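Discussion board: Methods & Data

I've been asked by a reviewer to show the raw model output for two of the constructs in my manuscript, not just the figures. I'm not sure how much to include, so I'm pasting the format here to get opinions. Each protein appears as its amino acid sequence followed by a line of discrete structure tokens. Is this the kind of thing reviewers expect to see in a supplement, or should I convert it first? Here is construct A:
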Amino acid sequence: MDSPGPVLVGVGPLTPGQVLRVARSDAAVGLSDQAVSAMAATRAHVEALARDFGPVYGVSTGFGALATRHIPPELRAQLQRSLIRSHAAGSGPEVEREVVRAMMLLRLATLATGRTGARPAVAHTYAALLSAGITPVVPEFGSLGCSGDLAPLAHTALAVTGEGLVRDAAGEQLPAADALAAAGIYPLALEEKEGLALINGTDGMLGMLVLACDDLRRLLPLADITAAMSVEGLLGTDRVFAADLQALRPHPGQAAAAANMVRLLAGSEIVASHATPDCPLVQDAYSLRCAPQVAGAARDTLAHAERVAACELASAIDNPVVTLDGRIESNGNFHGAPVAYVLDFLAIVVADVAGMSERRTDRFLDSARSHGLPPFLADDPGVDSGHMIAQYTQAAIVSELKRLAAPASVDSIPSSAMQEDHVSMGWSAARKLRRSIDGLTRVLAIEALTAARGLDLRAPLRPSPATAAVRDAIRVRVGGPGPDRFLAPEIGAAVDLAASGALLRSAEMVVGGLA
């Protein structure tokens, strides 16, 4: 478990927990003595090469397709300023604060390894901005996910030089120079190679991957909860989730999801009411019976994504890099393919989990398949429409999630006069995954809202203690069955409960932690 207090950035990898504390909990940031020493050592190599007349990429040459241009010593500081100004070329809506903070921390972590050749002063300035709660304004569009998240990172670098726009800790937008002055932070004057060192990494897409993994670690147990509520409310059986049946196909995620559902359904009078030899229901529909297979495969995919994120967190990504023996070497480690692939994979997972959730909701509303529930769970069907249009909302979101599941990483648009002739589009994959996770939250919330009404309509039979606790958490904000009411606020309340983790916590207070 990560220690409280400031996050100390050293030469070793950050943990996902440290990234989350800085990005989402506004933790302050410090720099270890070991990192300062490592940066100072490799900076000496850069300064020695800067005095050499020979061409060194990023020190005495132009960039990208302009790398053949030799830059004389008197223009090299201007070279770094020009790089940041020209590459801060983003457009579109402002990127979320948590994403920008994660991106800045991850760039700082690479600086701290000493492999970029930047001065310790550069890292100290990044740490100071993070600790002061100053967040550069970064537009959404501009990164191709190769040669790093160039435009987004350039907007953050521009801020530490005192240019561009930022938001202060209170969220007010103001010129970077004013925010730095108010916080007592001196703007950086970049020296040889430092501009390039601030923009050549996968930090934006990696930060969004770490945030997405955290979100999904909380949403997948919620998917088990809503599935259990639906199995119960639709008179399904829990026998198919038995451990010996799941062990016939020993995927770890599937076993975890099935075990969750067994615990969630334990003690249900509704399930027990039809668990008799004379029950005419032979087997449940796939959206009920196969819930652990889908949510389990989602967990296994998430575990793979977390392994990729851990590897990337242990990386020092820059081009060129400074080796420990003083060489400055070009490389291709900035290519975002490893991160882009798993971002796309997770978007596929999200769409499928949401799609199965929507199918369960639809079964509640169809009197031909709901086993005795009123059409659309309406109080007076015909006069009332019940949850009919809540399912429309789910379906619209699921349709959007399917479009967002189309992979960004299979696309590539050559850039920089064909020098950068294959790019990852990892930033785009990360942006659409964030929208997908929001959509999944909404879909699961609507299933929980509908299933809670279905459980109420099974009275006097009582649901399990766990699903009853979730139902009761919803009832604090949303009334039970009755004549039609303004439905959008009720959906909004359920979304808030899902996004905040309140629904998950209510179940875990009964059954303990869910996998």
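Construct B, same format:
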Amino acid sequence: MSVRPLDVVRSVKVKLGLLVAASVIVAITVASIGSAGGVPVLLSVPITIVLALAVTQLLAVGMTSPLREMTHAASRMSTGDHSVRVTASSRDEVGELARAFNRMAEDLAEVDRHRRELVANVSHELRTPLAALSAVLENLADGVTEPDPETLRAALAQGERMTALVTDLLDLSRVDAGKTPLAYEDVEVAALLEAAAAESRVAGREVTYEVEVVPADLVVRGDTARLRQLVANLLDNASRHSPPAGTVTISAGVGDGHWHLDVTDEGPGVAPADRERAFERFGTLTDIDGGGGTGLGLAIARWVTDLHGGTIRFTEPDTRGAHVRADLPLSPTPAAPKETPMTQTTTATATAPPPPPTLTDGTFGDLWPERALPANIPVLLGAVGVGVLAGTVLPFHDLGLAMFLVLLAAGGVLFAASRKRRDRFTMACALLCVALSSITIIRDAEWIAVLCMVAGAGLCAVGLVGGNSFRAFVISVFAWPLSGLRGLPWLGRTLRALSGRGNKLALVRTVVISIIAITVFALLFSSADALFAEWVGALVPDIGSEDFGLRVFIAIAIGGVVLAGSYLALNPPEADRADSVARPVANRFEWLAPVLVVDAVFVLFLVAQAAVIFGGDDYLERTTGLTYADYVHQGFGQLTVATALTLLVVWAASRKAPRETAEDRMWIRISLGLLCALTLVVVASALYRMDVYQDAYGFTALRVLVDVFEGWLGVLVIATMVGGLALKASWLPRFGLFSGIGMLLALALINPEGWVAKQNIERFEATGKIDWTYLQTLSDDALPTLATLPDDQVLCALTSDYGKSDNDWLEWNVGRARANSVFDKQVADWSFKNDCPGQTVD
């Protein structure tokens, strides 16, 4: 059951105002705490937003749950299940709507019950006279019996029985539909009862009727026709259950503003347990004592008394027989009939509500179905543990062993929670994530470590979802942050399971008492013993310090990220459903013409490249006004984008191209194969341009990274060609993912900053040019290489931070350890120089 803290509020508008106010207050409070604690904006802002959205979700669920329950209940009612009800605890307009919905459901359930009973009972009641009538007519038709008066009277009796039943049903249907308004007038009771008794005598009843009215001139207000119907049905019921030559007594009297009508017979009577059922439709006394009848007479009698504002019931007779009493007002007020057992509401039946809504409901449709995940306490505790670990070891430490431990713990929780952990693709992603995380204990360069962590997070999301297409990969990455909102109902169920059913207050009370006890005794013993005070100070953080605030924010952030990833692992979206079926175009020229146009542009570009190569630098400078170094630098970025766009063109064209015939497939291979081949030439041109530019201006880590990225695009182009130009390349998306991760790992393992330092030193030795300022920005990874410079130049490439990292084991990694070793061995031989030769700036 969802939490509904705003149920006591009587207005939806006020609830919305409170919702906004609560979100703003939470946001301001969290932001203020973060600012006072020195928490970085990039950390405090996301946490503030997430907590504000969490409060919004908590309060909004209670506001919208009745609407969702009504939608769910309406869908079940449309299938014939009228037992569903919604929770109507709210006092606002939505709560009123929920209560009205429940009343409607009760009425529909009652109507449906009557419909089923009516069909069953009418069929039962009509079957007997129809069978008898059919038998008589069959005998007449076959000549078994003669059409004498006795036989015809028997057939007529059966027809009259069916006519009486249909007449009674019509009377009740008019009453039910509200089409039987009462025409009030003065009614002489004695005349009414005598006329009813006379009609019964004419009908051939073998009983004696006695009429008693006190006072004899009693006059009441009522509908004469309906009262006559009431008396007639009571007399018919009494005469059928009386023995031959028995007496039926009809009496009327006055008392306390009412008049009463009593009908007594000498039959077997009605048992107390059956007296109420006798007034139900088809709740016949035939079932009780075999007296016959349609089972509608007493039901009609009750409706007539209800229409007049009275009551009717069986009472205990003075002697043998049955005694029916109807109490009616002397001057009834026109009003709707009172509820009777036929229209009484049934007890509300609880139904399991749909899963509580989240802020992402309806965003993904069938792509990410909501599963009622059970509570998972181990996963919750694992995420909390990772958050506590992160808040303890990460603050005030550079990337190193501490970050690796946190990443390893987080990955372990996610892998354990994953529904796909036995899938080979997921296991491969897990191993690669461990490899990417290990870069934090291998390299000191933050840019490569952060890049590996970002790639590892994306790979982790892909592994948890298990997609098999580029679109599925993108969905997987975006599903992780959305899981933080989508998983809130699951988190609520897990917290309730953690606290235990019925033990929530006890748990809270225990925690509060324990904290108070620890605080009181710790303060007492700390004031009494200095050593104990030191121990307490080392173990207990200073809650008022900035350090503690930062640690709390980091713990919440990391724990929340792991918790969101855990929900993604438990309930991954069906990402491959998003990969829509390809719809080829009808005409070949619709896809072939654009591809050939792109091919022509590529050919023209390669002709321009050939003109530059054969024309030389003079031709280039005379034509464009650029030196060759400026020329190659200007176009590298554009060529990289062109390569990526070419892959997109190949993908789109392969999906739109028809491939039913061999000729269609031939044109796909020729046109797209030519485009891929030309793209490889462009990749080679881009790499050549970067090589020329680096020779002219030096090497940097960014340029090396871009080289690797361009090379990876070239690998994808080759893979596309090998895979049959996307005709049968279902493996291509995962190959592109793993090859990109592999190249990133290779780049990290070769020590890119050390390699860049080496290339710049070799260029300096060959040309006498070097950018000392850039070399000073490199990390400790480059120190072993920079230490190979001559002693009079080595400090031109260093700053005072090189090789002087703290010996904190939480910051340890291979790069820093090597730098410290080099610095400790050679620092005595180094001396600062004010003049650094060959300085260049790009």
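Answer (T.O., handling editor elsewhere):
This is acceptable in a supplement if you add a one-line summary per construct. For B, something like: The first helix runs from residue 12 to 36.
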